[in-house]
Amino acid sequence: MKLKILHLYPKEMNLYGDHGNVLTLVKRCEWRGIKTEVIEHEPGDPIPDDIDIIFGGGGQDSNQDKIEDDLRKIGPKLKKLVEADVPTLVVCGLYQLFGDYFETAEGKIIHGIDILDIATKAGPTRLIGNVIISTPEFGEIVGYENHSGLTTLGKNVTAFGTVVKGYGNNSEDFTEGAKYKNCIGTYLHGPILPKNPRLADYFIKKALEKRGNTNKLERLNDSIEHRAHKVASSRPQ
Ligand code: GLN
After folding, report:
1. Pocket test for ligand 1, best of 55, 67, 92 (most atoms within 8 A of CB)
2. Which of 69, 96, 161, 221 is positioned for an S-S bond with 135, CB 3.0–4.6 A?
3. According to the model, what pLDDT value does residue 209 have?
């Protein structure tokens, strides 16, 4: 058994260490003797049917523009996977494009793929800094945000968390990110998974469950991860 991780647009969509999320998933599997295969998806590539985890990172407006056409091509397939409960993490630029659209500061609409019931419009300033959110499922999550997009949530998603420090979706309603089925969208870079190991294990656990393995995940020594979390949470915004 091998968990197949689909990494969307590693070249175009990779800001503030987002690639580290894939490394974290691979390592936490390896430490438990679980084999993985990472499929790096670039425009034009086919999407295999038997994907276990989907990950996509953030990117500048110009790079979101570059991948728009391909993303819309593979959108129905990604939607099918998310609807089938495939655990999925999308950060910032791809979080926005898993929604309805992102309207840039210049008024250009970059169309999304409507998996998450969200819409995003660039605001007058960039929202930058360290973030802490509290989540019902994973406790405190720490990360770093840098986006112009202001995201509003529709009724078919719940917020991923509530902002304790930072701006989150739109700097107004204290929501951060969105969750639908096993798909989590968030503005948090950093990367998010190494210093939030409980969240990292959620994706691995859900992937294994889908393969019929409902055993408890073997515990790892996360003392370094917890220290990293603590340092990040003590930083000023
Ligand atoms: N270009 C988008 C924005 O500025 C996404 C940025 C990002 O992925 N960090 O809102």
Report:
1. 92
2. 161
3. 97
pLDDT tens by residue, 180-236: 999 999 999 999 999 999 999 999 999 999 999 999 999 999 999 999 999 999 999
The CATH class for the domain spanning 2-234 reads alpha beta
111 is catalytic: no
**What span, in angstroms and rounded, lies between the C-alpha atoms of 145 and 139?**
19
Q: What's the full length of the chain, in residues?
A: 237
Q: Is 147 in the pocket of ligand 1 (CB under 6 A)?
A: yes
Nearest CA-CA partner of 207 in 87, 117, 36, 121: 87
**Ligand 1 centroid to residue 8 C-alpha, Å:** 16
Start-to-end CA distance of the chain, whole Å, equals: 42
What pTM did the predictor assign? 0.98
What is the predicted pLDDT for the residue at 84? 98
8 A C-beta contact, residue 5 and residue 52? yes
Indicate if ligand 1 lies below 6 Å from the C-beta of 60: yes
Atom of ligand 1 nearest to the CA of 94: 8
